[in-house]
Amino acid sequence: MNNLGITQISRKDFISTSVSASMGGFLLASEGISMGKMDSKAKSPRYRSPNNTLQIAGIGLGGEQGGSARGLTDLHTAVSLPGTKIVALCDLYGQNLDSAASAFDKDISKYRDFREVLERRDIDAVVVGTPDHWHVLVALAALNAGKHVYCEKPLTLTIDEGKRLVSAWKKSGLSFQVGSQLRSDPRYLLAVKLAQSGKLGGITMVEAHLPTGPTGGPFNAEPIPADFDFEMWLGPRPLADYNQRRCFGSFRYFMDYSGGNLTDFGTHMNDIAQWGLGFDRSGPVEVEGEILKPPFEDYSNYQKVWVESRIRGKNIPLPGDHNNWYDTVPIFRVTYAYENGVSLVTSNYLNDYGLTFRGSAGWVSVTLNSISASDDSLLQEPITIRDKEMKVPLDYKGNFILQDDTNHMQNFLDSIRTGSKTECDAEIGHRSATVCHLGNISMLLGRKLHWDPKKEEFVNDHVANMFLRRPMRKPWTL
User: Fold this and answer.
1) In angstroms, rounded to a whole number, what is the distance separating the alpha carbons of residues 124 and 145?
2) Is residue 30 part of a domain?
3) Are strands 354-359 and 203-209 parallel, antiparallel or unpaired?
4) Residue 256 lies in a domain
5) Domain housing 238
6) What is the pTM of this model?
């Protein structure tokens, strides 16, 4: 595997290395290998491999031995399209890595450290399918290495790191696509077009419905799988006991790594809502989160300690050792207000998944499996996908007919080849994740918050602004 002249450094011989701080103030300090210097060709925004074949690497795969395998799914979508080749895979769990590699070319390269992947100058783009707390670190390093990036949602763990990523992406000239595949789904495109066209009248409210979240804990410490690098998996987050729930699939129900269903499913729905309202590069001005069901009985006491221990970086033991519990809110209602007077209500007490735009003259509602409207004639409105005008089949069932995942990936590949815009670039992905983070912050603080979407900070609220970032475990830093 060490065929690139990379010097391997043991933990015992720790060396702190850095990736250029020239892009958005990014500094990646870490153990192990040096990223090295990238020449101008490697950083060229439209550099492509010979024969016009885009060579792609996957970082963070998941798979049958644990994990959602969203990154692996994205890679299979990419390789199904013409002019692409998957040349490298990277995962911290050896069993998932070997299993994924068996589905691609026998000469595919396998890595356990993403920095080795980014050293390769023959790789044009990376697909990032890691857990959420690694998204920005990997994406920033990839941009710095001159790679185009397709990164799964939610794009960020904190608002501050999202701002840094957007700054770096804008300076890079590279293509960036966030895995908000519903933006390429015909039904959601139609709903957004109706909301923006005036055919529903003036929009007064948007309702986003999400699945409810789980509760659980305490989870006992378990032996770390022999072929899993748990220390690297934790990365910038606090030290913790290993248990399978923490790392595979259900990691999103631990605040240290994600934000529950509000940042998971909510990123999709809030993204579409902001797009329909014309605020997908901005955001709300007020947010108020309501906890309809807490993760556990003494959550109110836990909230106070979590603020001190996790956000402010103080070493305060959590009550009842609740860092071994799911600590994201399982049932909630969050109300957002926009400067034009429209409200977005994101909730999951109905355990549903969909979105409704309500206007003064009608409504349109879309779910994963259906679309309906106050007047059926509205559903005959034509839409355009990748320069082709079409009407949405009323029996449309997602991937089974028009393959919105394929549309979304093709949009990314087209952007690399031509410089065209992607459907969900880094700025849009950051703003969509921000809406979700705002809801979680409001629930943690237990009060309404006022937000300045231009400055991207809370208005005259020092305590709330402490939540814009989180301390990172050394040696990782931004």
Assistant:
1) 10
2) no
3) antiparallel
4) yes
5) 183-402+426-468
6) 0.89
